[in-house]
Amino acid sequence: MNIQAIELFSEVVNPDLGEVSALMRATWSPPCWVYEPDLLAMHIHRPSADPAMAVGLRAGGGDLAAYLAFVPLTLRLDGKTYSAVFASFFTVSGRYRRHRLSDRQQGLMLDRAKSRGYDLYVAVTVAGTPANQTVARAFAARDLPVQSVRNFRYLAGSSAIVGSRLMRTEGLLRVRPYEPKDEAAAHALLTKAGLSATLAKVVERMDVDFVLRTRPRVRTYVYEDGGRVQGILNIAILSVRSSHVAPNAYVEHIAFGAMEAAAREEFVDTVLRQVLALGVEAVMIPDTGYADLAVFRRLGFRAAPRKLRLLLAPLRGGILQALPQEIDSFYLDVF
Q1: Could you give the C-alpha distances from 113 to 53, 119, 134, 331, in angstroms and in order?
Q2: What is the pLDDT of residues 128-168, one digit of tens each?
Q3: pTM
Q4: CATH superfamily of 154-303
Protein backbone atom coordinates (compact mmCIF):
# COMPACT_ATOMS: atom_id res chain seq x y z
CA MET A 1 0.00 0.00 0.00
CA ASN A 2 2.81 2.42 0.84
CA ILE A 3 4.55 1.60 -2.44
CA GLN A 4 1.39 2.32 -4.39
CA ALA A 5 0.98 5.62 -2.53
CA ILE A 6 4.55 6.66 -3.33
CA GLU A 7 4.01 5.94 -7.02
CA LEU A 8 1.24 8.53 -7.12
CA PHE A 9 3.80 11.33 -6.82
CA SER A 10 5.20 12.82 -10.02
CA GLU A 11 8.27 14.97 -10.62
CA VAL A 12 7.80 18.60 -11.55
CA VAL A 13 10.84 20.48 -12.83
CA ASN A 14 11.22 24.15 -11.91
CA PRO A 15 7.81 24.53 -10.27
CA ASP A 16 6.31 27.98 -9.90
CA LEU A 17 8.09 29.80 -7.08
CA GLY A 18 4.78 31.08 -5.73
CA GLU A 19 3.75 27.47 -5.19
CA VAL A 20 7.10 26.61 -3.65
CA SER A 21 6.81 29.64 -1.36
CA ALA A 22 3.38 28.50 -0.17
CA LEU A 23 4.73 25.01 0.60
CA MET A 24 7.70 26.35 2.55
CA ARG A 25 5.74 28.93 4.52
CA ALA A 26 3.19 26.28 5.52
CA THR A 27 5.88 23.77 6.52
CA TRP A 28 8.79 25.56 8.18
CA SER A 29 8.56 26.32 11.90
CA PRO A 30 9.99 29.51 13.41
CA PRO A 31 12.56 30.83 13.75
CA CYS A 32 12.99 30.83 9.99
CA TRP A 33 13.00 33.13 7.00
CA VAL A 34 9.71 34.08 5.40
CA TYR A 35 10.22 32.20 2.16
CA GLU A 36 8.66 34.58 -0.35
CA PRO A 37 9.12 33.90 -4.10
CA ASP A 38 11.66 36.67 -4.54
CA LEU A 39 13.86 35.23 -1.77
CA LEU A 40 13.97 31.94 -3.68
CA ALA A 41 14.66 33.76 -6.95
CA MET A 42 17.72 35.41 -5.40
CA HIS A 43 19.54 32.10 -5.79
CA ILE A 44 17.60 29.87 -8.19
CA HIS A 45 17.45 32.53 -10.92
CA ARG A 46 21.10 33.58 -10.74
CA PRO A 47 22.33 33.89 -14.36
CA SER A 48 24.81 31.00 -14.08
CA ALA A 49 22.34 28.76 -12.24
CA ASP A 50 20.00 26.21 -13.82
CA PRO A 51 16.33 26.28 -12.73
CA ALA A 52 15.96 22.76 -14.16
CA MET A 53 17.96 21.60 -11.14
CA ALA A 54 15.10 22.66 -8.85
CA VAL A 55 12.56 19.85 -8.69
CA GLY A 56 9.43 19.11 -6.73
CA LEU A 57 7.18 16.11 -6.18
CA ARG A 58 3.50 16.62 -6.88
CA ALA A 59 0.82 14.53 -5.22
CA GLY A 60 -1.90 12.89 -7.27
CA GLY A 61 -4.38 15.48 -6.04
CA GLY A 62 -2.22 18.31 -7.41
CA ASP A 63 -0.49 19.52 -4.24
CA LEU A 64 3.23 20.27 -4.30
CA ALA A 65 4.37 17.80 -1.64
CA ALA A 66 8.16 18.21 -1.65
CA TYR A 67 10.86 20.44 -3.11
CA LEU A 68 14.63 20.58 -3.31
CA ALA A 69 16.90 22.90 -5.29
CA PHE A 70 20.42 22.02 -6.39
CA VAL A 71 21.96 25.37 -7.35
CA PRO A 72 24.93 24.85 -9.73
CA LEU A 73 28.25 26.54 -9.11
CA THR A 74 31.96 26.09 -9.73
CA LEU A 75 33.92 25.22 -6.60
CA ARG A 76 37.62 25.60 -5.92
CA LEU A 77 39.02 23.15 -3.37
CA ASP A 78 42.72 23.07 -2.57
CA GLY A 79 43.54 24.86 -5.81
CA LYS A 80 41.47 22.62 -8.12
CA THR A 81 38.12 23.52 -9.64
CA TYR A 82 35.04 21.30 -9.80
CA SER A 83 31.49 21.58 -11.11
CA ALA A 84 29.22 21.38 -8.09
CA VAL A 85 25.72 21.81 -6.73
CA PHE A 86 24.63 23.58 -3.55
CA ALA A 87 21.56 21.87 -2.08
CA SER A 88 18.99 24.08 -0.38
CA PHE A 89 15.32 24.86 0.28
CA PHE A 90 14.61 21.18 1.09
CA THR A 91 10.98 20.94 2.17
CA VAL A 92 8.51 18.08 2.61
CA SER A 93 4.91 18.86 3.47
CA GLY A 94 3.81 17.43 6.81
CA ARG A 95 0.78 15.96 5.07
CA TYR A 96 2.98 13.54 3.12
CA ARG A 97 5.84 12.62 5.46
CA ARG A 98 4.48 9.10 5.96
CA HIS A 99 5.31 8.46 2.29
CA ARG A 100 9.08 8.78 2.93
CA LEU A 101 9.33 11.60 0.43
CA SER A 102 12.46 12.96 2.13
CA ASP A 103 14.54 9.99 1.01
CA ARG A 104 12.93 9.90 -2.42
CA GLN A 105 13.51 13.61 -3.04
CA GLN A 106 17.16 13.52 -1.96
CA GLY A 107 17.85 10.44 -4.08
CA LEU A 108 16.07 11.92 -7.08
CA MET A 109 18.23 15.03 -6.98
CA LEU A 110 21.50 13.19 -6.37
CA ASP A 111 20.84 10.97 -9.39
CA ARG A 112 19.90 14.01 -11.45
CA ALA A 113 23.15 15.78 -10.52
CA LYS A 114 25.23 12.67 -11.24
CA SER A 115 23.58 12.15 -14.63
CA ARG A 116 24.40 15.73 -15.59
CA GLY A 117 28.07 15.32 -14.77
CA TYR A 118 28.43 17.39 -11.61
CA ASP A 119 31.43 16.53 -9.45
CA LEU A 120 30.69 17.72 -5.91
CA TYR A 121 27.77 18.26 -3.56
CA VAL A 122 27.71 20.92 -0.84
CA ALA A 123 24.96 21.86 1.58
CA VAL A 124 24.44 23.65 4.87
CA THR A 125 22.30 21.94 7.51
CA VAL A 126 21.32 22.72 11.07
CA ALA A 127 23.14 20.38 13.45
CA GLY A 128 20.90 17.74 14.99
CA THR A 129 18.02 17.99 12.51
CA PRO A 130 16.58 15.03 10.54
CA ALA A 131 17.88 16.46 7.25
CA ASN A 132 21.38 15.27 8.20
CA GLN A 133 20.24 11.65 8.44
CA THR A 134 18.27 11.93 5.19
CA VAL A 135 21.34 13.14 3.31
CA ALA A 136 23.52 10.43 4.89
CA ARG A 137 21.08 7.70 3.84
CA ALA A 138 20.90 8.99 0.27
CA PHE A 139 24.68 8.92 -0.14
CA ALA A 140 25.07 5.57 1.63
CA ALA A 141 22.53 4.05 -0.77
CA ARG A 142 24.86 5.08 -3.62
CA ASP A 143 28.07 3.93 -1.89
CA LEU A 144 29.35 7.51 -1.67
CA PRO A 145 30.78 9.27 1.39
CA VAL A 146 29.46 12.57 2.74
CA GLN A 147 31.35 14.52 5.35
CA SER A 148 30.63 17.45 7.65
CA VAL A 149 33.77 19.50 7.00
CA ARG A 150 33.09 22.56 9.14
CA ASN A 151 30.79 23.58 11.97
CA PHE A 152 30.01 27.28 12.10
CA ARG A 153 27.55 29.84 13.41
CA TYR A 154 26.21 33.21 12.45
CA LEU A 155 27.49 36.27 14.26
CA ALA A 156 24.48 38.34 15.32
CA GLY A 157 24.31 41.99 16.25
CA SER A 158 21.13 43.54 17.63
CA SER A 159 20.25 46.93 16.23
CA ALA A 160 20.31 48.50 19.71
CA ILE A 161 23.79 47.25 20.60
CA VAL A 162 25.34 47.81 17.18
CA GLY A 163 23.79 51.27 16.87
CA SER A 164 25.23 52.34 20.22
CA ARG A 165 28.77 51.42 19.14
CA LEU A 166 28.93 52.97 15.69
CA MET A 167 31.41 55.79 15.19
CA ARG A 168 29.91 59.25 15.04
CA THR A 169 31.88 60.24 11.97
CA GLU A 170 30.72 58.71 8.70
CA GLY A 171 32.81 57.99 5.62
CA LEU A 172 30.17 59.34 3.28
CA LEU A 173 32.74 60.69 0.85
CA ARG A 174 34.24 57.24 0.36
CA VAL A 175 31.20 54.96 0.76
CA ARG A 176 28.51 54.83 -1.89
CA PRO A 177 26.05 52.35 -3.44
CA TYR A 178 27.39 49.89 -5.98
CA GLU A 179 26.85 50.89 -9.62
CA PRO A 180 27.13 48.91 -12.87
CA LYS A 181 30.42 50.66 -13.64
CA ASP A 182 31.92 48.89 -10.60
CA GLU A 183 31.39 45.39 -12.02
CA ALA A 184 34.99 44.69 -13.06
CA ALA A 185 36.46 45.97 -9.80
CA ALA A 186 33.87 44.06 -7.78
CA HIS A 187 34.59 40.84 -9.66
CA ALA A 188 38.30 41.21 -8.93
CA LEU A 189 37.70 41.88 -5.23
CA LEU A 190 35.27 38.98 -4.77
CA THR A 191 37.62 36.64 -6.63
CA LYS A 192 40.46 37.66 -4.34
CA ALA A 193 38.25 37.11 -1.28
CA GLY A 194 37.53 33.57 -2.47
CA LEU A 195 41.21 32.79 -2.93
CA SER A 196 41.75 33.24 0.80
CA ALA A 197 39.45 30.28 1.60
CA THR A 198 40.15 26.54 1.45
CA LEU A 199 36.80 25.91 -0.24
CA ALA A 200 35.27 28.67 -2.33
CA LYS A 201 32.80 29.28 -5.09
CA VAL A 202 34.28 30.74 -8.25
CA VAL A 203 32.52 34.05 -8.84
CA GLU A 204 31.27 34.08 -12.41
CA ARG A 205 31.52 37.44 -14.17
CA MET A 206 27.97 37.03 -15.55
CA ASP A 207 26.64 36.84 -11.97
CA VAL A 208 28.30 39.90 -10.46
CA ASP A 209 25.77 42.60 -11.35
CA PHE A 210 22.84 40.31 -10.50
CA VAL A 211 24.28 39.33 -7.13
CA LEU A 212 25.25 42.86 -6.16
CA ARG A 213 22.55 45.01 -7.73
CA THR A 214 19.57 43.55 -9.59
CA ARG A 215 18.52 40.53 -7.53
CA PRO A 216 15.69 41.15 -5.07
CA ARG A 217 16.23 42.39 -1.52
CA VAL A 218 19.92 43.33 -1.80
CA ARG A 219 21.92 46.45 -1.17
CA THR A 220 25.61 46.68 -2.00
CA TYR A 221 28.07 49.36 -0.96
CA VAL A 222 31.57 50.10 -2.19
CA TYR A 223 34.46 51.83 -0.49
CA GLU A 224 36.15 54.11 -3.00
CA ASP A 225 39.40 55.91 -2.33
CA GLY A 226 41.65 57.64 -4.82
CA GLY A 227 39.20 56.84 -7.60
CA ARG A 228 39.47 53.07 -6.98
CA VAL A 229 36.93 50.66 -5.51
CA GLN A 230 38.77 49.00 -2.63
CA GLY A 231 36.01 47.23 -0.70
CA ILE A 232 32.58 45.61 -1.16
CA LEU A 233 29.80 44.91 1.34
CA ASN A 234 26.71 43.11 0.02
CA ILE A 235 23.65 42.85 2.28
CA ALA A 236 20.28 41.13 1.88
CA ILE A 237 17.23 42.35 3.80
CA LEU A 238 15.19 39.27 4.69
CA SER A 239 12.06 38.90 6.78
CA VAL A 240 12.38 36.49 9.72
CA ARG A 241 9.48 34.79 11.47
CA SER A 242 9.88 34.10 15.18
CA SER A 243 7.34 35.34 17.74
CA HIS A 244 6.64 38.01 15.12
CA VAL A 245 7.80 38.88 11.61
CA ALA A 246 10.59 41.43 11.33
CA PRO A 247 13.34 42.33 8.85
CA ASN A 248 16.93 41.31 9.49
CA ALA A 249 19.99 42.26 7.46
CA TYR A 250 22.30 39.46 6.29
CA VAL A 251 25.85 40.30 5.22
CA GLU A 252 26.42 37.96 2.26
CA HIS A 253 29.61 39.11 0.55
CA ILE A 254 32.59 40.84 2.12
CA ALA A 255 35.68 41.94 0.26
CA PHE A 256 38.08 44.24 2.07
CA GLY A 257 40.92 43.85 -0.40
CA ALA A 258 44.00 45.63 0.90
CA MET A 259 42.07 48.05 3.14
CA GLU A 260 43.73 49.01 6.40
CA ALA A 261 41.95 48.42 9.71
CA ALA A 262 40.86 52.06 10.07
CA ALA A 263 39.36 52.08 6.58
CA ARG A 264 37.50 48.84 7.29
CA GLU A 265 36.01 50.33 10.43
CA GLU A 266 34.95 53.47 8.58
CA PHE A 267 33.41 51.36 5.80
CA VAL A 268 31.49 48.96 8.05
CA ASP A 269 30.31 51.69 10.41
CA THR A 270 29.01 53.82 7.55
CA VAL A 271 27.21 50.92 5.88
CA LEU A 272 25.65 49.62 9.09
CA ARG A 273 24.41 53.08 10.00
CA GLN A 274 22.49 53.16 6.71
CA VAL A 275 21.24 49.59 7.10
CA LEU A 276 19.97 50.15 10.65
CA ALA A 277 18.05 53.18 9.38
CA LEU A 278 15.92 50.70 7.38
CA GLY A 279 14.42 49.43 10.64
CA VAL A 280 16.07 45.99 10.81
CA GLU A 281 16.03 44.24 14.18
CA ALA A 282 19.40 42.55 13.79
CA VAL A 283 22.35 42.14 11.46
CA MET A 284 23.67 38.62 10.78
CA ILE A 285 26.88 37.40 9.20
CA PRO A 286 28.01 33.78 8.74
CA ASP A 287 31.37 33.18 10.41
CA THR A 288 32.90 30.97 7.71
CA GLY A 289 36.53 31.97 8.16
CA TYR A 290 37.26 33.65 4.82
CA ALA A 291 36.95 37.25 6.05
CA ASP A 292 38.37 39.05 9.08
CA LEU A 293 35.31 39.86 11.21
CA ALA A 294 37.12 41.76 13.97
CA VAL A 295 35.37 45.00 13.07
CA PHE A 296 31.98 43.33 13.53
CA ARG A 297 32.96 41.85 16.89
CA ARG A 298 34.02 45.33 18.03
CA LEU A 299 30.47 46.45 17.32
CA GLY A 300 28.98 43.83 19.61
CA PHE A 301 28.38 40.92 17.23
CA ARG A 302 28.33 37.59 19.06
CA ALA A 303 27.89 33.95 18.01
CA ALA A 304 24.24 32.95 17.58
CA PRO A 305 23.17 29.75 19.36
CA ARG A 306 22.25 27.68 16.29
CA LYS A 307 25.11 25.49 15.07
CA LEU A 308 25.34 24.86 11.33
CA ARG A 309 27.21 22.17 9.40
CA LEU A 310 28.84 22.41 5.99
CA LEU A 311 28.46 19.08 4.16
CA LEU A 312 30.74 18.07 1.28
CA ALA A 313 30.58 14.96 -0.89
CA PRO A 314 31.74 13.64 -4.26
CA LEU A 315 28.96 12.70 -6.65
CA ARG A 316 30.90 9.79 -8.12
CA GLY A 317 34.02 7.79 -7.37
CA GLY A 318 37.46 9.10 -8.26
CA ILE A 319 36.60 12.80 -8.02
CA LEU A 320 38.60 13.40 -4.84
CA GLN A 321 41.65 11.43 -3.76
CA ALA A 322 40.46 11.87 -0.17
CA LEU A 323 37.47 13.67 1.28
CA PRO A 324 38.74 16.34 3.70
CA GLN A 325 37.77 15.74 7.31
CA GLU A 326 37.74 19.44 8.14
CA ILE A 327 38.41 22.76 6.42
CA ASP A 328 39.38 26.00 8.12
CA SER A 329 37.44 28.39 5.87
CA PHE A 330 34.97 28.58 3.04
CA TYR A 331 33.44 31.23 0.79
CA LEU A 332 29.91 30.31 -0.21
CA ASP A 333 26.44 31.79 -0.10
CA VAL A 334 24.67 30.37 2.97
CA PHE A 335 20.96 29.87 2.22
Answers
A1: 8, 8, 17, 22
A2: 999 999 999 999 999 999 999 999 999 999 999 999 999 86
A3: 0.94
A4: Gcn5-related N-acetyltransferase (GNAT) (3.40.630.30)
